[in-house]
Amino acid sequence: MKDSIVIIPTYNECENVEAIIRKVFSLAQPFDVLIIDDGSPDGTAEIVRKLQFEFVGRLHLEQRKGKLGLGTAYIHGFKYALRHGYEYIFEMDADFSHNPEDLVRLRAACADEGYDMAIGSRYVVGVNVVNWPMSRVLMSYFASYYVRFVTGMDIQDTTAGFKCYRRKVLETINLDKVKFIGYAFQIEMKFTAWKFGFKIKEVPIIFTDRTKGQSKMSKGIFKEAVFGVLQMKISSLFKTYRIEP
Q1: Of 34, 57, 62, 115, which one is least surrounded by beta carbons within 10 A?
Q2: Exposed e or buried b per residue across 195-225, where buried means at least 16 C-beta atoms within 10 angstroms of its C-beta
């Protein structure tokens, strides 16, 4: 059984991708890295391919044709990680908004403390966000409040995209039935894991907005999250969440 793999979706991240890969590989705790690139026209995948000669067997690349959505990129990565036997499977952004050093703390929550999912949380201890305009901070914070209100989840940062899963969580969730492809995907994965009764811990992090490249946030993504949560909650009332022995 392999240990840990970090899944990083990319689209036009040529300014960040080499630095984030090198930072992950510099950590004392060994992590493999899987880049899921959605046909970046800026040469992101070419940079990764060159680095594969340096990090043989540890740096993996999956290329897809065109922007197919954040959620589908992670689902693609989850299936890859399960096929290749990884025990701890991570989600992380390419733009350094998530500090790679926190990967070690997320892994420890699962590997040492026995949790099934660890969330890098911006809001479990105050509001830990750097370089965001106040309007976006408020939008994100109250979006999490809204999700908690609708779903009943006791998770402070419901939209967080920095996570560690034990493989059994991803084996239990039917990945082919995950509905959302934008940022609502992050909510759906937490909600489904919570409904199955998996143990979830929020690990406090400091989130720093990107300094290079373009943000992928849009009004459509936010709209999906707002209305999708209601649909998700209603649908859950007609489902049975049972972990098969």
Answers
A1: 57
A2: beebbbbbbbbebbebeebeebeeeebbebb
- DSSP 8-state class, residue 15: T
Specify which residues 130 forms β-bridges with: 208
The span from the CA of 147 to the CA of 223, in Å, is 13
d(CA 146, CA 204): 20
Say what the pLDDT of residue 162 is: 96
d(CA 179, CA 162): 20
**Residue 90, φ and ψ in degrees, nearest 5:** -115, 150
And the tokens for 100? 């790679």
pLDDT digit string (tens) for 132-149? 677 777 777 788 888 999
Cα distance between residue 41 and residue 30, in whole Å: 30
What is the spatial distance between Cα 210 and Cα 132, in angstroms, rounded to a whole number?
A: 9
